[in-house]
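Why does residue order matter? Because the sequence determines the fold. Keep that principle in mind as you read this record.
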Amino acid sequence: MKIKELREEQARIATNARTKFDEIKSDTPEARATEIEAEFDRMMAEHDKIGSKIERLKKLEEAEGRAAEGDDRRPRGGDGQQRGQEEGDKPTYRHAFAKLMCGFTPEDMTPEERQLLRRGTSNFEQRAQTAGTASAGGYTVPTELIPTIDKAMKAWGPMYDEALSTVITTSGGNSMKLPTVDDTAVDAGTHTEGTALTDDGGKDATLGQGSLDAYGFDSEFIRWSWELDADSIFSFETLLGELIGERLGRIANSQLTIGTGSSAPNGIVTASALGKTSASATAITADEVIDLVHSVDPAYRASPKARFMFNDNTLLALRKLKDGQGNYLITEAPDGSGRLKVGSVSAPYSINQAMVSIAAAKKVMLYGDFSKYYVRKVGAPVIGVLRERFWPDMGIAGLIRFDGEISHSGAIKHLITAAS
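Structure:
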């Protein structure tokens, strides 16, 4: 490649680097900004590498020019003739090769010279230093690392999301009491004229009380060395912080879904009431889904937060249900809004991978008013880095405190499969 072409390549890289750097705005997430900076650094390293190549080529051209001035045997010019070789002399491989190295193309050379070059390659040893063998040159080839880490992904669920349940956030972790009342079974009576009203306490309101505590969970410490922190092209503090945040999200969703309620959150599946038991231990039917919906009082079904919840395997089983003519029984909204339609029943659904798949005696589906499930968050999840404790190495850990409880079990009911 000529110097002019290299300079054009340099200019192109510089323009692309400027465009890449300008992507960083004041509201750009830190993780994305780090990726952009790494890509910018890679571009500028390539820019500098080409600059070094240009300087070497300039020195080479200067050296060749000085050598040509003092050596009449060196081929030059475009007349197809070499100095140091008299007109009529037979060309030699040495002179033909020298012309090729000095910029002559094969088309500029005589047929004899081209034949010498073709024949000469078969007369020399073909051994070469190689990059594929470490001792033959491979040790000098650096390993290039793509400046991004591809993280494995796995969905977990929505239970920590404020859009799903009723969330109460507090700064402290003292126990909170949730007053409840269920007066749905009590009616007023017939009044007889002139008769004193009954005052025996038989129809007094009966209140209850739930409790929202603050259960703590941690990620344990992850340590990394001072050398790794200094030498890695990635920010290990940022990477580990992201991974720990995802771990805290997974434990929160799991506990708020299937927590036992004993020294732990009362998970929504655990706290829900029985709505329907399927006839099969390995399958559910569209009629059983409709039965589950109607096991919940219409007052709860009318709530804006009334919905289904199940895992992705259960959704797959629902999507495969067909009638006797092969028509699918369950459809979904074409606008991608995440609504499930079973006959005339239509409701949104949430995928929660902490729920179990269809098997014997498993609570595989929920339906009801999710606003009746209360999630208590104590502040925000905390992720901290310790440098002094592990000096010169570093350690990072995360903590989260929360609880969950349902106010009325009848508001959210589950479908459980047959025991066998």
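The longest strand covers residues 394-406.
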